[in-house]
Amino acid sequence: MLTLIGEAQVTKESPGALKRNATEAIRLNDSYAAVHYLELYVKEKPKDTKMYYELAHQYRLSRNYKKAYNSYKYISEVNLSKFPKSLFYQAEMGVRLGKYEESKTQYYEFRDIYKGEKDEREWRKMAKDKAEAIEATSTQRNKEPEYTLKHLERDINKAYIEQSPIYIDEYTMVYVALRADSLISFKGKEGQNLPQRKFYVAINRNGKWSFEGELKFDSFFDTYEISSGSIAPDGNRFIVSACKPDENRKMRCLLYELRKSGEDWINPIELPKEVNALGASNTQPTIANGSKAYQEVLYFVSERKDGKGGNDIWYSIYDARKNTYREARNAGMKINTSHDELSPFYDNESGKLYFSSEGHPGLGGLDVFYTEGAKSKWEEPTNIGTPINSSFDELFFTSFPNGIDGWFTSNRPGGVALENETCCDDLYAFKKMDSVQVILRGRTFIDKKITSDVLIELFYFNSDGEKVFNKRIKSDKLGNYKIRLEPGRMYSVVATYEDAFTETQEIKISDGFSETNLTWDANLLPFGDKAYVIENINYEFNKDQLTNEAKHSIDKFLLPILVNNPAIKVELGSHTDNKGTSAYNMHLSQKRSESIVKYLLSRGISESRLIAKGYGESKPIAPNENEDGTDNPDGRAKNRRTEIKVIGKVEVMEED
Question: Residue 201, class by beta-carbon neighbours within 10 Å (0-12 exposed, 13-18 middle, 19+ buried)?
Fold first, then answer.
C-alpha cells in the first residue's frame, strides 16, 4: 500500500535530528520520508551501517529497486556477518531487476551461511523456495507472448497510483486513483486537506481512454481512502473497501455495501462481523455468482491470525433472500501461501479466479495467477506469464466478459513516475491474441412450444470429474440464449423450468477447438399427469434384476432427472407384455420397479421421493398381437417399458 510521504526540508538538521525524523517516518510507515532523512543522515554518518541497512529497507519498501539493490549489495560486501539478510534482500532486488541467475546463486549462498539463528529454518526455506522458483519459471520468462499491452493514456495515468479497474461496459471503466502531482508532507499542518484515493470514471472514445470525473458516490466516504470495489453481477450492489489509518498510521480497511439509485450509489452499510473481522483489514472484494440463484460468493483479502500467512484470500456466502453473510472462510492452501495473495478477480463468464501472489513461483514481485474452482476447492494455480507478468508488481487483473480484453496495474518501468521509475502503479490494457471464442446458442421449448425465461445453467467438470458451477442465464422473449464456452473443458448444460423436467446436454471443448458456433435446443417436458418412458431399461427374460445396460441407462437418463429436479416425488411404473398370466406379470413388474428404486437409493436418491408401482400387462401402449392374431414382437417391445410420472413434491433441505 502506497503511503503519502514527506516533502524535502530545506533547513539543515543535525544527524541526531535526521535520525529521529527518520525513525518517526518509519513508525508512520512513510517510506519516502524515511528515505529522505536517511539519505541525509548517512551522508553525515557513512560508517553507521545499521542505518544504511535501514535505508536499503526503505528503498525496498518504496519500490526503488535499483537503489535498494545497490544498498543491500554494499552492506553484504562490508558487513555480511552482522547483516546476513542483506544477501537475501540483494537477491530479491536482483530478481526485480531481471538478474535471475545471479539472484539464484545468492539465494543458495544465503541458505548456506544463514545458520544458528532462531528464524534459520524459515529463512533458509524461503531462500530455497525462491531459488527453485527462478528455475521453475524459466519457461514462463521465455515463452511466446499471448497478449498485447497498452499503457493507458496520460489523462488516466497520473504521477501517483491508479488501481482497481472495474468493468462497466466496453466503453466505461471505474477505477481508483490518487490524483496528485507532488509529494505530501507526513508532517502536514493540522486540518490540512490532503488528496485521497477515490473512484473515478473513464470513457473510451474512438479507442482512447479519457478522464470523465469523479464517480457519483455517497458523501459518507469523503473522509476515507478508497482502496477497491466490486459490482455485483446483477448491477445493483456495490461492495467497496474504504480505509482509514489507525493510531500507528497503518491503513485499516472495512468492506461496505451500497445500493444503486439512478446513476448514484447510496446508503453505505458496513458489512457484518462475519465478513469484517475485528482487528483485521478487509479489502479488495470480488463477487461471484453462487451455485444457487439466490446466492453470491464474496471473495476478499484479509490478514488474519488464523490465515496461511501474510494477506490471504477469504470468502463469504451471501444469501439474497435473507440479506445475510455466512462466516468468512479461508480460500485454502491451493491459493493462499505464507506470503501475500492480493487483488482477487472472479470472472463470472469463464468461472476462473485471478489473483496476485508473492508466494507462488513467479517472475518477481507480485505475479498474476489464475485457477478454476470455487470457495476453498481449487485447481493448481497457473502463472499467466509474460507480458502481463514481469519482474515487477502486477495487480488488479480484470477481464472483460468477452474473455479477450481487460486491464491490470503494474509498477514496471515506463509508467508515469512520481519519485522513481518503479514507485507507482499505472493502469495497462491487454488484448489476447489469436483468441477463438466458442459460443453456444439455442432456443428453449416446453413441450415443443417456444418458451422464454428458461434457466440455462453451465457447469464444467474439474480434474477430479466433479461438476463445478460456472454461470446461469435465462432465455429471452423469443426463447433464444447465448453463452460463451472455454477451450479445454467438458461442460454440462442444464435447462430448467418450473413444473418441467430438466434437460441436460454434455459438450466437450478441446484445447484446439476451431468451431466458433455450437447449437443446442432444449425441449423440456411438463410434469402434468403424463407418464414418460425411460428408454433402454431392459431385463433378462423372466428376471427382475437390473442388467448392466439397464443400470447405465438409469445413470444416463433417469438419475439426472431426479438429481436436477430435487423437489419432485415420482412414481416409477414398470409394464410387461401379456406373455404369462396377469397375476404373474403384475408380480414381475412390481419386482422390477422395486429393483429400480433400490438401485436409485444406492445412488443417493431419497426413499421419500420414490414410489415403485407394477402395472403388469394392464396398460399396453401397443397391440401385443397383429389383427390376424399373429404375434407382434414390436408391439410387445413397446409394452415392456419403464415410465416416470411426477406425483408430488417434497421439501428440499438446503446444503450448507
Answer: middle
Is there a contact between 311 and 340 (Cβ–Cβ < 8 Å)? Answer: yes
Q: What one-character DSSP code corresponds to residue 380?
A: P
Report the interhelical angle of 31-44 vs 49-61 (nearest 10°): 150
Q: Quickly tell me which residue has 543491500 as its cell.
A: 72
Q: Given this model, what pLDDT does residue 217 score?
A: 84
Place of cell 518509519: 26
Is residue 144 packed enough to be buried (19+ CB in 10 Å), middle (13-18) or exposed (0-12)? exposed
* Residue at 479 is within a domain: yes
User: Is the CA virtual torsion 49, 50, 54, 57 positive or negative?
Assistant: positive
Which residue range(s) make up the domain with 562?
A: 532-649
3-state secondary structure 73-102: HHHHHHHCCCCCHHHHHHHHHHHHCCCHHH
- The residues with which 329 forms a beta bridge, in sequence order, are 315
Provide the pLDDT confidence category of residue 194 given band limits of 50, 70 and 90.
low
DSSP annotation of 652 reads P
What is the three-class DSSP state of 112?
A: helix
Q: What is the pLDDT of residues 557-589, one digit of tens each?
A: 899 889 888 889 999 999 999 999 999 999 999
Question: Is residue 655 domain-resident?
Answer: no
In this prediction, residue 599 has a pLDDT band, given cuts at 50, 70 and 90, of: very high
Backbone phi, psi, residue 377, to 5°: -120, 115
pLDDT digits (tens, 9 = 90+) for 213-249: 999 888 889 889 999 999 999 999 999 999 998 877 7
Coil, strand or helix at 253: strand
255 with 136, same domain: the answer is no
- For residues 622 and 556, state if they share a domain: yes
Lowest mean pLDDT among 139-153, 188-202, 494-508: 188-202
Q: For residue 390, what is the enclosing H or E element?
A: none
Report how far apart, in Å, the C-alpha atoms of 124 and of each of 102, 106, 131, 165, 341 are: 17, 12, 11, 38, 21
Q: The pTM is what? A: 0.88
CA angle 107, 342, 334 (to 5 degrees): 75
Same domain, 257 and 364: yes
At 655, the pLDDT band (50, 70, 90 cuts) reads low
DSSP state of 258: E
CATH number at residue 66: 1.25.40.10
**Beta strand spans in 400-528 (E):** 405-410, 426-432, 438-446, 449-450, 455-461, 467-474, 480-485, 489-496, 503-509, 517-519, 522-524
**Alpha-carbon gap, residue 427 to 202, rounded angstroms:** 12
Mean local confidence (pLDDT), 56-85: 96
Task: Confirm if 588 and 544 have CB atoms less than 8 A apart.
Answer: yes
CATH classification of the domain holding 244: 2.115.10.20
- Closest by CA position to 158, among listed 394, 409, 415: 415
Output the CA angle 133-134-137, nearest 5 degrees.
80
Closest CA to 176 of 278, 257, 32, 285: 285
Does 254 have pLDDT greater than 90? Answer: yes
Mean pLDDT of the chain: 91
CB 458 within 8 A of CB 472: yes
SS3 letters for 305-366?
CCCCCCCEEEEEEEECCCCEECCCEECCCCCCCCCCEEEEEEECCCCEEEEEECCCCCCCCC
